[in-house]
Design goal:
Outer Surface Protein A, domain 3, zinc
Length: 613
């Protein structure tokens, strides 16, 4: 078919979806639905999302604007919207703020901004106290973005205070990684997630938009660190970012104990969608490149485009939804077409829309993975999202979509943070003692924490304080989140309890290993309050840093414990370690030394610091 014929096919499909969804927008139906327990009013699969589809459709066909406005007026005035359980951008109540903003942009009616401020005040307690995650779709990052966008139109001191508190919360939740910073330590995942919905791309995007509005270099530095972390899980062979979610319920015990990425690859899918994968990660980098001009973002975006174009041709999955399907992939390609001025990308998005309609003609659904998908009106989960794509590919170039909300107004306020303020907070979190000893603390201002770490090595790499804090920070860098250590603790409890009950002969024949997340450290000076019972060994003071579900702890140990743990690192049977490595350094009998070592081994097993190899 010609391009014009393709557009006619898409237009017909768009109007068919609009007709199918009209009953959802009916005033009486809306009132009835809002009176039912558990009714969804959010953007993801609720009333607000369907209204957003009609607002997008109205940009193409203004006759539908009144449909959206009538439904929105019923929704926004209904008392049910004040009885919310979740207070997040896509999956909760704050999506209503986004809807109000888009309604204002479509009509210039101030009443929608006023209603948004009223709802923000009503939802403030929930926003501050009932949101656990940090991500874009269901966490603090999404709320920070939508509240700042609202503030950009109508500045109120109370709203600015809420924005500041959310920004502070994201700063407090940031954790150092081997590269960059990460958020989201409570999810069932190998590590903090990548991607737009629940991962680093979405958090980075929100921080980028807010930093651009406030002209805040500190928030921009956090956004860049989020994407730096995400690149540690980029797979160049697949041109994709690893989906680190662990959806399998049958993880092997050995994999949980060792928690190595190479072991978990068998559980990880190569999904590419808006929520997880190259489409969402590429979308975030597209906007990052536009704001920063960093050529690395341009290259990463190009890799994402290549992957997405391949997927839009092969169409290996029967899912055309906005969240997990090809509609989300096409939305990224469409936005790239506008930003990069590449008409061929728009054509690829239009062809996907045509293929979606063909698929529906053959299968009577836009999502074969869910049995009742054809009755789901949701924006991200169902029909409204497919329609949103159809309308978008028919419209002239547009730079803002629900898949990547923007703050379009130029900077109009003071930065939230002074230059260097957030970086100082992060530095002090991991290297407070070391920095306190430096005369010139201004060296911290213009670098990220990893650059600071390298500088501190050159300034005082042999210093006890730096040695201690550096060792502790290495454990933080390898911390994989709460779920990892909760699961491992349960498995190790069973394995190690059985080992502790074994005979001495069995234990002496066993090869042990130090579990991931345990680090030993030696200093000449004490790093903890020293009591009368804490006499320094001739070699110094000894510590174990260990990761657990809530974070990292440290406690002092004896020199003998450190010597034993060091010997365990040689991966030899315990009896051989005692005979060949430990006994030559002592003046006690080998029988007595074995008993001392066995007692220590059983204690280390009980603490979960070691296990059998």
């Amino acid at each position: 078919m010609s391009m014009q014929e393709d557009k006619q096919v898409i237009l017909q499909g768009l109007y068919e979806l609009a007709a199918r969804l009209l009953p959802v927008m009916d005033k009486q139906q809306m009132i009835y639905d809002l009176g039912q327990p558990g009714v969804s009013v959010d953007l993801f699969n609720g009333k607000a999302g369907v209204i957003l589809f009609y607002l997008r459709l109205a940009e193409y066909d203004p006759a539908y604007l009144q449909v959206a406005l009538s439904a929105a007026d019923v929704l926004l005035s209904h008392p049910a919207i004040l009885q919310q359980q979740y207070f997040t951008l896509y999956t909760g109540a704050t999506g209503l703020l986004y809807l109000c903003i888009v309604l204002y942009e479509a009509t210039a009616y101030e009443q929608y901004l006023e209603r948004a401020h009223e709802l923000a005040a009503a939802f403030e307690y929930g926003i501050l106290n009932q949101v656990i995650q940090d991500d874009l779709i269901s966490g603090h990052a999404g709320n920070l973005l939508v509240l700042t966008r609202l503030y950009s139109y109508k500045r109120k001191a109370g709203l600015l205070s809420l924005i500041q508190r959310l920004a502070d919360r994201l700063v407090a939740h940031a954790r150092i990684a081997s590269q960059g910073l990460r958020w989201g330590h409570l999810k069932r995942s190998y590590d903090c997630l990548t991607g737009m919905s629940h991962g680093a791309s979405g958090i980075g995007h929100a921080l980028l938009q807010v930093s651009a509005y406030f002209g805040d270099e500190e928030l921009l530095s956090l956004a860049l660190q989020a994407w730096a972390y995400e690149m540690t899980y980029y797979d160049p062979d697949r041109r994709n970012w690893l989906d680190l979610r662990l959806t399998s319920t049958h993880l092997q015990e050995a994999d949980v104990v060792h928690w190595r990425l190479e072991d978990f690859r068998k559980y990880i899918s190569d999904v590419n969608a808006w929520a997880h994968g190259a489409a969402g990660a590429g979308l975030a980098r597209l906007h990052a490149w536009k704001v920063t001009g960093d050529p690395n973002f341009a290259e990463e975006c190009e890799q994402a485009i290549t992957r997405c174009l391949d997927d839009l041709v092969t169409l290996k999955r029967g899912d055309f939804t906005l969240c997990s399907g090809y509609a989300g992939v096409a939305m990224f390609v469409l936005e790239a077409a506008t930003s990069l001025n590449r008409p061929s990308l728009r054509e690829a998005a239009q062809q996907l829309a045509v293929n979606a309609i063909k698929y529906y003609g053959e299968h009577r659904t836009y999502n074969s993975y869910i049995s009742n998908a054809d009755s789901d009106p949701g924006l991200f989960s169902g029909l409204a999202g497919v329609g949103y794509l159809f309308a978008s590919v028919l419209l002239p170039d547009r730079r803002e979509h629900i898949t990547a909300p923007l703050i379009g107004i130029q900077r109009n306020d003071q930065p939230l943070y002074a230059p260097g303020e957030l970086r100082r907070r992060l530095f002090d979190r991991y290297y407070a003692r070391t920095l306190a000893k430096l005369v010139d603390r201004s060296l911290k201002i213009d670098m990220d924490i990893h650059s600071l770490e390298q500088l501190l090595k050159t300034l005082g790499g042999e210093d006890d304080t730096f040695t201690y804090e550096y060792s502790l920070t290495q454990v933080w860098k390898t911390h994989r989140g709460s779920w990892a250590y909760t699961q491992r603790a349960m498995i190790l409890a069973g394995i190690n309890d059985q080992l502790r009950r074994e005979t001495d002969i069995v234990l002496l024949d066993t090869v042990f290993e130090i579990v991931q997340g345990v680090e030993v450290c030696t200093t000449a000076q004490p790093m903890h309050p020293v009591g009368e019972e804490d006499k320094a060994d001739t070699e110094g003071y000894y510590y174990i840093h260990y990761a657990h579900p809530q974070g990292v702890n440290t406690f002092p140990v004896s020199r003998f414990t450190v010597v034993l743990l060091t010997a365990i690192g040689y991966s030899l049977p315990l009896g051989q370690l005692v005979r060949d490595m430990l006994h030559p350094k002592t003046d006690v009998s080998i029988a007595l030394l074995q008993q001392i070592v066995l007692a220590q081994i059983r204690r280390l097993l009980q603490e979960g610091f070691i296990t059998k190899q």
